[in-house]
Amino acid sequence: MDAEASTSWPEVSSSGTPSTGHADTALCTWYNIFMRDIFGGLVVVVGLIGNGLTIVIMGRDRRKSSTIRMLFYLAIVDSLILIVYGIIAMPTPLLKLQDLYVEASNHQVISITVLSYVGQTLNQISVLFTLIVTWQRYVSICIPLKAKMYTSPHNTNKMAVTAIVFAVIFYLPNFFHNSFITDPTGKLQPIAEPLAENFIYQVIYSISLLYLFSYVGPIVGLIVMGTTLLQNIRDSFKKKTTMKAKEELTLSLVGVILIFIICQSISPLRRILMWVYAPYHIALQCENALFFFGPIYLISFLVNSAANFIIYILFARGFRRKVFKFIRWNHQVDPAQPTGQSWTFTQNNTCDTASTGTSFGQP
């Protein structure tokens, strides 16, 4: 969600420098491979599996709760973010390792000038969805008499659609910042369009409005509402020793907010470093001041989009039970049916149809 468009092409190169590549030491090469391909790839795989399970479990219960409906939508968007930023982060080090420097450079150009804006659009949708689901919990707890009106399925869907439309329109100008030419070596070279170099446009849109809507506004809102939700949990816990499903869901949401704030704070930190260590693309090169910071920007998006499932598993017992039931369901074959043709729920005396259909949280 960073305002990459407010800088010229060389400074934009945050996901790795345009590939001169030959000067990288073994440490630099393997650090990039570890961070982007091994660790980043692991986060992508774990995140896609976790979000897939979340989509399945919450998809079944999305009509029971507006909060679960929004978390279901959030899991879909987070999966798309993992795919896009995985494509941005992972191929370049492997291409360089095989001495495919032209291909690595072209991949970086496309990633930074096109794919990064797709990722930022999806990230903006994720930001707005997180804000919406937090607001719904806040209304349900602090203004319960109006919860039915504000968190109805119809209003929830309208807010989700509005968030998507806003994010697409808001980030659309970024796709017109560059055109491309191919140099004699076969490398793509981006050419900045006049719009991207306009100072007033940069100050108003690429810095002020972008950070207001993508970071400052959402973070302030999430901190205020998250603090209130956490206080409500503390008050409830003082009155009883165990938490109900609603309180577990609220605690999970507080965890989502905390991870969100930490991961999204990397973007403005990166912007500050771009000003301090100008030219930024030089500082990112091997053995220079910000080399080890370079991949963290992309990894922060991956971690933020992969972490929610782990939070639900840790704090929401009902969700955890449903995940384990689903896993057992898909690994035990009904002995009455031929192998591979039918799957059945593993049940015991305490797992009746009522418990199977119970949502892990209500609004």
UniProtKB/TrEMBL annotation:
Q: What keywords tag this UniProt record? A: Membrane, Transmembrane, Transmembrane helix
Which CDD domains does the record associate with it?
A: 7tmA_FMRFamide_R-like (cd14978)
User: Where found?
Assistant: Membrane
SUPFAM superfamilies linked to this entry: Family A G protein-coupled receptor-like
Q: What is its main location?
A: membrane
Q: Where is this region: Disordered?
A: 1-20
Pfam families the UniProt entry points to: 7tm_1
Specify whether Cytoplasm is a keyword of the entry.
no
List cellular component terms (GO): membrane
The record's section on InterPro entries has:
GPCR-Ligand_Int (IPR052954), GPCR_Rhodpsn (IPR000276), GPCR_Rhodpsn_7TM (IPR017452)
Q: Transmembrane region positions?
A: 38-58, 70-90, 110-135, 156-176, 203-230, 251-269, 289-315
Q: Per the database record, which ranges form the G-protein coupled receptors family 1 profile domain?
A: 50-312
- In the record, what terms sit under GO molecular function? G protein-coupled receptor activity
Q: What is this protein called?
A: G-protein coupled receptors family 1 profile domain-containing protein
| Species annotation | Capitella teleta (Polychaete worm)
